[in-house]
C-alpha cells in the first residue's frame, strides 16, 4: 500500500498480516481526496475503523494538521503506531484502540473538521455511528463526514442535523458525504 499524494507520495505502509482487512482501493482513495481537497489543509481528521490507517496517513501527507485513528483490533493499532513512527507522522497523530462507538461517547479535546468511516461492509455500523457524529463536540458545524460502504447498503438521508449531500459510486463501493444541513458544501 502506498501513499498516493502529498509530501509522503510513494511511501509504503505495511498492513497487519492475518487480519481480514479491506483497504480502501487506490481509485476510491484518490476520489475521496479529490472531494476533500478544499477542506484538508490544516484540518483535524478522524479516521474511524482505521484498519491499516492508510486513509488517515494519506490525509497527513496531503496537509491535515492532526489525525486520530480509531480501531478496536490491538494488532492494527500496533502496526499503525509503527507506520506513523516510520513515516514521521507520530507527532501529528493519535491512535485509539477502542471501538468507534466507545470513542465517540467521549468528547474529544477539540472537534474534528473531517470524519472518515470505513466500517466492515457486513455489519451496518456506518448507520449506527452517524447519530454520534451529529453532536457539535465531535465535528465542527462546517465539518464533513464521509462513509465508505457497500453500494447496496442504504444509509439515512438525514440523521439529526447531518444531511446526505451526495454519494459517489466506484464499483461495489459508495462514498456518502454528510454535512450539517444548514451548511453549503460544494460536492463535486
In short:
With about 190 residues, this protein is of the alpha/beta class. The protein is about 25% helix and about 25% strand.
Short descriptors:
188 residues; alpha/beta; Rossmann fold; 8-stranded mixed sheet; 5 helices; 8 strands; globular; disordered C terminus
- Reported CATH architecture: 3-Layer(aba) Sandwich
Q: What best-fitting shape do the alpha-carbon axes yield?
A: globular
State the name of the first-level CATH class.
Alpha Beta
H/E topology pattern: HEHEHEHEHEEEE
DSSP summary: helix tally: 5
Low confidence ranges: 184-188
What is the CATH superfamily? Answer: Vaccinia Virus protein VP39
What structural class do you assign from the helix and strand content? Answer: alpha/beta
- Strand percentage lies at 25-35%
Q: Give the strand tally.
A: 8
Radius of gyration: 15 Å
Largest sheet: 8 strands, mixed
In percent, how helical is the residue content? 25-40%
Which fold name corresponds to the CATH topology? Rossmann fold
Domain module tally: 1
Name the average pLDDT.
Answer: 85
Distance between the termini: 26 Å
For the biggest β-sheet, the strand order reads 3-2-1-4-5-8-7-6
Write the layout of secondary structure elements.
Elements: H1 26-40, E1 44-48, H2 54-61, E2 66-70, H3 74-87, E3 93-96, H4 100-104, E4 112-117, H5 125-133, E5 139-150, E6 158-159, E7 162-170, E8 173-180
